[in-house]
Amino acid sequence: MITIRLATADDLPAINAIYNHFVLCSTCTYREEPETMEDRVAWFDHHGPKHPITVVELDGEIVGWGSLSPYHSRCAYRNTVENSVYVAHTHHRRGIGRMLLLDLIDRARAVGHHTIIAGIDAEQQASVALHEQAGFKQVAFLNEVGYKFGRWLHVIYMQLMLESDGQRERK
Ligand SMILES: CC(C)(COP(=O)(O)OP(=O)(O)OC[C@H]1O[C@@H](n2cnc3c(N)ncnc32)[C@H](O)[C@@H]1OP(=O)(O)O)[C@@H](O)C(=O)NCCC(=O)NCCS
């Protein structure tokens, strides 16, 4: 059985294991050292109701996670979030990434966010395609802002607006 739900502190070791695989072998994250459990707990504690962390559980195993994080610490950015989606490398191409992202979009709308930003390494065509499918549009391309595995990396920013013009109001 496959389910998606809010993460709990008990899920953090699985979340970290999924993420740290990519730290060591992929440009999808610009982190170069594995994330410690201490850092992961601090990250979890900084995500309140407006910034959910979700997991997909498949037959009792956590196989993917997603999050909405504040885009920027300055107060006027409060209705903008940045998303993350990570699926265990053993479970790609089974619809789990899409499940996580569409659910995050629903949750962002439900708590009144205005827009979602995704910062994606330009080599990550799977992630770009996933976000395009969910309605995100490319809004920026930053040239050579990262350096990992001995090469310069470019970042694509994609954005999804959550409200139509008629619904916009000051928050
Ligand atoms: C990007 C990622 C989350 C996709 O998750 P996934 O569960 O494998 O993707 P899904 O099976 O839900 O696929 C959804 C769509 O994503 C795109 N996609 C996924 N994998 C792809 C690939 N290898 N090549 C091209 N497009 C791909 C396709 O558009 C796909 O739709 P389709 O199956 O109808 O063609 C996963 O590859 C991953 O965890 N990558 C490492 C972490 C990462 O890059 N995260 C995003 C940064 S926040």
What's a concise summary of this model?
The protein has 171 residues and is α+β, with helices and mostly antiparallel strands.
Can you tell me about this structure?
- By secondary structure, the protein is an alpha+beta fold.
- The chain has a single domain (2-167), classed as 3-Layer(aba) Sandwich (Aminopeptidase).
- It contains 4 helices and 7 strands.
- Strands 1-2-3-4-5-7-6 form a 7-stranded mixed sheet, with helices on both faces.
- A hairpin with a 2-residue loop joins β2 (53-58) and β3.
- The radius of gyration is 16 Å and the shape is globular.
- The chain starts with a strand and ends in a 10-residue tail after the last strand.
- The mean pLDDT is 96.
- The structure holds coenzyme A.
- Residues 22, 28, 84-87, 92-98, 120, 124-127, 129-130, 133 line the site of coenzyme A (COA).
